[in-house]
């Protein structure tokens, strides 16, 4: 690997890291804004079934699997760490798209961010809801005839 290649890799890593931070921060604001537009009943129902902020729930599950007990302040910090670390963990995907498929930084970034969001938010989170959320959504899952 030549000097130019190393410089390109470092640039890609820096761009991916900055984009991950900015994208996460922007989506956080967007999600809060769209949530505030929902009817009050929907907001209340969502708060009732959520076991907590998703990053903190993930941090608690990971810590539990490792046999670590987190206190409240630690849980918040670990949750925020996961919240920003998840998009950063996709840096190699971005770099691979840039190098192997010769995508522009914007195209590689949009593809990487979109894929990460779909997999993490719509795939993993939706696939493993809390027991409370599953009970609350059971009538919806059966369809209109079951009601």
Would you kindly provide a brief summary of this structure?
This protein has 147 residues and is mainly α.
Structure explained in plain terms:
There is one protein chain. The protein is mainly alpha-helical. It has one domain (3-50, 81-139). Helices cover 81% and strands 0% of the residues. The protein contains 7 helices and no strands. Helix 1 (3-37) packs across helix 4. It is globular, with a radius of gyration of 19 Å.
In the predicted model, the low-confidence regions spanning at least 5 consecutive residues are: 142-147
| Shape verdict | globular
- Measured between the Cα atoms of the first and last residue, the distance is 63 Å
Rg from alpha-carbon coordinates: 19 Å
The number of distinct β-strands equals 0
Mean pLDDT score:
82
Tally the structural domains: 1
Major β-sheet profile: none
SSE order: HHHHHHH
Q: What's the tally of helices?
A: 7
Query: Share of helix among residues?
Result: over 70%
SS class:
mainly alpha
Strand proportion, as a percent range, falls in: under 5%
